[in-house]
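Known limitations

Files may contain more than one protein. Parsers should not assume a single record per file. Below, a two-record file is shown to illustrate correct handling: read the sequence, read the token line, then continue until end of file.
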Amino acid sequence: MKVKPHRPYTGEYENGQPAPNLLVYLLWLLVHKLVTIVEQLMQSLRQPFFSKRIRIKAHQYAEHQQQQQLPSPVSKLSKVPKHLVVLLGPEPPLYRQLAQFIFWSLAAEIEYVSFYDHNGTIKRNCEEVKRCVREAPVEGKDRIVWLERSGGGGGAEADNSPRQPVGSGRTVVVGFLAPEDGKQGLVSLSRSIGESVRRRDLYAADVSIELLDSRLQAALGAVPDPDLALYFGDVCSTYGLLPWQIRLTEFLPLGTRLRDSTEREFVRCLHRYAKCEQRLGT
């Protein structure tokens, strides 16, 4: 048997191809390990934020069978909005996604949530939102109260499905707003007050900010002024939303599109709102 003479290592195989560099191989293993650690960390951060939970199926719950958890109140928050408004701009409403805001608000102990778009589409099709709520496999739907208005005023009444809860416990009152509830409603109220003063049913000296506040709240079902309004996209516009009642409202962005809104972004906005300080002056 013929033995080949020993040749020094030159970094190449006998066929002339370069041999793998040990340092590069070790660096590749290190990068792979770091990427794996980062992916595991990101998966752990995607878990829900809250200790108590309300169960709901995933985003496309009509098509999937797995369930996810919705948030319940964050004990570390110093405050939560009493009245939340979800404000839509030019994009069309997605009723199933809007229904999730009701569940999130219920879990976060927000007492009032309203939906507004400048075309009045959501208000005209409010039954679509109610249908999505009825079809969602969520616990505690009996604590959702639909705000019904008749004759330009009235209070909150429970729709037949779901019914208003009889026992104790927090509820969320859901309302639908349109441009006629804003500027047009303010004009109608001003005319009504003017007619009352002309008929001497009301004295001019009695007309005050407190009177306007009480009349406007009565027309909207005794719902308090919005504390927080969530909008989508880069443009912050009120689109004619309740010009009188939003003088102290915080406007915060929630993603670029309604379809991309998530529980995490909703919680982030609640944390930002809790840190807001209002200085009204003297």
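...continuing to the second record:
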Amino acid sequence: MVLLSIQTLPCSCPTLNNYTFNYRSQGQGQGQRQSQRRCLKSIVIRCGIAEPSGEPAPLGQKTKYNDGLFDKVFMTLFTRKMDKFGKKGSDEMEKKKGWFDYDYDSFVDVSRKMMQGRSRIQQQQVVRQVLMSMLPPGAPAQFRKLFPPTQWAAEFNAAITVPFFFWLVGPSEVVEVEVGGVKQKSGVHIKKCRYLENSGCVGMCVNMCKIPTQDFFTNEFGLPLTMNPNFEDMSCEMIYGQVPPPFEEDPVSKQPCYANICTIANPSSNVCPKLSAN
């Protein structure tokens, strides 16, 4: 998502309190640097973990969140858009739900419905439509101009991922990774992905999140991104600046279902059926 204007919100989490991005751009003109500074100066996002420890719940337990206004606005926007582009029938959801009646469960439920009757490729195409619809006209071209595929751009996008995608994936942190033999802080470690733990579905993780997000940044924005979900502990690593492998060469293509927690799992299959092309 391209962030053109940002408001500061109160924060109750010490790890993000006064979260400020100080950045510099080498080899860029003064005008472009000023434009980038206007794009993002200081970001503070309220934390939503409701667990006593302040950390995600252990594997097998669902993390409790205390979602605020910022979180619910994004949940509502994405859920409504997904329902609009994904539905094949009536406007039943929009008639029943008001603007602030949506929550994270609504978001996951709509995601699950979008999978029904669609192939892996079709699911990814619908998510792409949703993402494109969230952007103003000309946003991809503007993003490519502001953030060419450099180390600085990769590190900058990793930094803004932490606060702005908290509502979607839960707590995360910027980590050092190696891209093309160069160590840089363009990695994001998601401690326990909220989307994966709430859906409990490998297919939803891969088709509705990983692949569409990778393709969106790599092909629409021109900034390569690779996402490596860990299905053992539900964590995930995002690597900005790294070109993702073809699906057939990606380890996730061989991932079996969560047989005990996925409502649409096929325990008899060695690979999640939703990962097939059909």
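Parsers that stop after the first record will miss the second one. For reference, the second record is described as follows. The beta strands are 172-179, 182-190, 225-230, 235-240.
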